[in-house]
Amino acid sequence: MNTRTTNKRRLRAELPLHLMLVPGIIVTLIYAYGPMLGIVMAFQKFKPLLGFFKSEWVGFKNFEYVFNLPDFTQVLWNTFFISIMKIAFGLLIPLILALLLNEITKNWFKRLIQTSIFLPFFLSWAVLGGVLIEIFSLKGPVNGLISAVGVEPIMFMGINEWFVSIIIGSDVWKGMGYNMIIFLAAIVSINANLYEAAEVDGAGKWKQMVHITLPGMAPIIILMCTLSLGGVLNAGFEQILILYNPAVYESADVIDTFVYRLGLFDQQYAPAAAVGLFKSVISVALVSLSYYLAYRLTNYRIF
Amino acid sequence: MRRTTASLIVMIMLIVALAACSGNDNAGGNNSKQGNDPSANKGSNVSGNQSDSGPQDPLGKYEEPITVTQVLAYRAPEEGDALKGVTPETNGYLKDLKEMLNIDLKYEWSVPADQFEQKFSLAIASGDLPDIMQIDYNTYEKFKEQDVLADLTDAYKNYASPLLKKTIEADNGFALKSLTTDGKLLGVATSGEGVVQIVWIRSDWLANLKLQPPTTIDELEKVAEAFVKNDPDQNGSDDTYGIVFNKNLLGWGFDARGAFYSHGAYPGAWIKDADGKLVAGEVQPETKTALARMQSWYKNGILDKEFALRDENKASEDIVASKVGIAFGEWWYPNWPLNLNKDNDPKAEWIPLMLPSLDGSAPGKTLISRTVSSILVVNKKAKHPEAAIKMANFYLELSKPKYAVKESPDFKGAKNGYIYLWFQPRFYYPKMFDEVMAKVSDAIDAKQDQLDLPDDFPGAGEAQSVFTNAKKFFENPKDNAAWGMWYSRGARDGGVGLSKKVVDEKHTVYNEYYGPPTPTMLEKGASLNKLMIETFTKIIMGSAPITDFDKFADSWKKLGGNDITDEVNAWYAENAVKE
Hints:
Chain B: This is Extracellular solute-binding protein. The complex is a heterodimer. Chain A is mainly α. Chain A contains 14 helices and two strands.
């Protein structure tokens, strides 16, 4: 009785706050959940003008069609390769940078480096793409440098191995500032007494890093690793679309660019939706797995 | 009861009177025909817009205003003197359409032209289509299959003006036939024969190096090599190359189509082989020969090392910057970008040549693809399908010399707010460019001051503007924009002139397939196309050996090419108009 009245009173007091949620929920329903109904398209022989209700149902035909396309395995492999490389280097390099930056004692210098590393994060691929193509062109500065030391000019954007390296490298370079800040924050939160104690015990900078800094950061590192697993099928649509060309389709065509061409240029909506759904299912599985791993390994929970 | 009958009669009289007033000269001819036609008497045609009642006034005014909807791919007006501040909604055509026909035209949406395809795809996907559209053949097939198109049989029969009929049926009914299904005409269009491929070459560079215009592919190669090595612009630095390509090998300009055709190779087209069967050009031995030659071009620096990284617009910059001396392409180059090259480099001179010959006998054969495009269709839900035909009449009416010639007192053009680019449906007499070229050349040869055009000359505005530009150019040879118009559209030895000669002398090969995409094409076409472009690009760049062509041809056949070939031949046996 008593709890019920307090509950009632609480509800009345908090009702306006709950009501404030309503617009957000409605917007989410309309723009995030509503379009999900479009998934039915993946199981239909979808004809736009007949709509979802009159198009013919075909079961898993669209999936069969897509998986049997001659280049699908290649595309899938490209996606995995590019994104795993991006994840690996995208964590490793910021980690090293954070550790190095942590050793810098001059505060102004540290800030300067930190800011300049973070800066490319804010540039859009549309701008960066044009710049990259120019920089790596045959008459660009990179080839200028290497021909100055007597190496033949290389067409970086037209050779598969180089192109993929540039895709991965530029993505890591662009995003490394962000992860670096997270790692720096993790380092700062380590108890300073530990370092003092280690110094008393005669540990040098290197030993301190190996035995105190890294173990102290471990939960954050593992957390970042597992969370990025969910994005394994996102190899960076915008970046690749802007940079690629027919000469490097073999290594650079990924699921997203593939769906883009299938859906918007060839107007095969249903197969494109099927690929999208396939991607989402894999992503949900990976996110759940990584969420579970994050919980087991670092005791991190969102909910 | 009696009162309603009386008012009906009054209304009919009013409509007839109005129609007679607004219908200009040709309306009279039609009205008299109506009297002779027995079917005209059957229908008691009250509102003047029912379609099953015999010939009607092609430009008759609706008694009540009607509204039709369209969508717009927005492009800035092409004309330099376009009236400032005109928007698609205040376009002069819309004002006249309202005045002459009492039709209110509403745009459901408009986006910049480069986003139109995507936006229109989305509109199709959401089923939200306007009343009147002008679409390509693929979209037409899709609409037909989904049964969203209105039957235009009667509307066309009864409302099309003589000029519209002349324009549409200039191909002896080919387009109308291919747009008729089960006796229903679902779309109205002209048919085209595609654009002739020619070669544009820097004649001042030829002169600098004391070379003759090349007529064979070997000579062309020698010239291109000289353009790479012998400093054709005589500026003392090694900054030129031979032939411009871009990453779309089969694109819309500055591409490799002409180079393929010169070798008798027609990738992307369906050619008749010795047994009379249709075969795909991309897997024929001629294509291999062409690719081998392009590979050597690439190796010798005749092609730009990075052509595969750049699109058409980027490639055109090399022409403007005087970096390249040879471009395979179409008649319009002088209009863009050659005129800009002349602005940039006053010494630059360009001439068009026929495609080089492979064996030295006859020039290379260009590909002629019969196409039906810009198809006028009407949404089934639209209340006035005949309005689309009337609007087509209206556009042709306004292209008559009376309105289209700048010097005419009734001139309706960009400078007083008539932006043709925004108005649909637009139809052009298919051979218009040829006729314009002939008329203008004749007038220039005869040193006329005025261009005399017959009253129903198709493309009068075009002819007049080419003529004016020709006059301007001869007065001031440094006016490169005027040169562009004259040399692309007017001169007998210019773009259109040479293209016409190519067709007249039959240096042509026909793409025999002009049907809709077959089921396997729809399913596998994208993959096969990707395979083709990827393989060809790599072979040319030397990152794959020429023997990869055989591998490509094998996989092409296995991955659906054979099925497509069967489907195409089945269609050919059944539908093709064989000559």
